[in-house]
Amino acid sequence: MPFLSPAMPVFARLCGSKKQFEGKRGITPGVSSETQNQIAGSKALNGENSVDLHHLIAKILDNIPFPATVADPQSQDCPLIGASPDFVSLTQFPTTAILGRNCRFLNEGCHLSVSDRQDIRTCVKTGKHFTGVLANQRADGTHFLNLLDMRGLKIGKYAETGEEKWLVIAVQGDVSNLETAEIPFEHIELMEEVAKAIAETLAKVTKNITVRHCNVPSKCDDFNESTEMPELFEPYSEPIWIPGEVRELALIGA
């Protein structure tokens, strides 16, 4: 039996299977003495010797064949750092108007229930899974119903502090013309595709991977744009989905 969205009673609020996400663990690499020496030497973290994580994510999303985004909850206001071509087509916003912004711009002029707003904030804060059908607005002002599925993905850790680095992976779908029974369960397989693409790309990088909390990935190409020293980042061999749901809802009629 499907769940109901508080904001959209005629559409399903879906939670699907959680088993695929819980218990998945990757290998946490240790921090070698060589890595510590690289941290001490700032030149190793700049210029041709390194590549920025936000820039990498943006490039990865360029090749995802369905509507998807990646946001950085550890940067100010959780900016989008990657958006697929199909997300651009779905929303009609160009990439330049998407990257570096919080995804709330899609809700401008649309109703968003207090419970959905709080659940999304909880997802961004904790990485716990959120699924809901939300009213969104395209760049041309037309409205559509978006099946939003988002969850946190741990992808590695900062070499110096050991703090984990995680991202918010989101997959979207236009369900405006679907009946409740036709709306699919959460986009588990599609979310796994995004995670796999991120893991495979990070594994192939031979340069130092650094993280700067830059809100506009296009500006991260130039290290002079950043006022902060980039931090060395070590990816996990296998990303880790953050388990749990933002809110357990009662079944209809229960």
Task: Show the helix and strand layout.
Layout: E1 3-4, E2 12-13, H1 33-40, E3 50-52, H2 53-61, E4 68-71, E5 80-83, H3 85-91, H4 114-126, E6 130-137, E7 143-158, E8 164-171, H5 188-204, E9 208-211, E10 231-241
Helix pairs in contact: 2-5
Structure description:
The chain is of the alpha+beta class and 254 residues long. It has five helices and ten strands; from the N terminus they run E-E-H-E-H-E-E-H-H-E-E-E-H-E-E. Strand 4 (68-71) and strand 5 (80-83) form a beta hairpin. Helix 2 (53-61) packs across helix 5.
Quick recap:
With 254 residues, the chain is α+β, with helices and mostly antiparallel strands.
N-to-C span: 10 Å
Q: Helical amount among residues, as a percent range?
A: 10-25%
Q: Tell me, briefly, the overall form.
A: globular
Mean pLDDT: 78
State the total count of DSSP E strands.
10
Beta content comes to 15-25%
Provide a count of the helices: 5
Summary tags:
5 helices; disordered N terminus; disordered C terminus
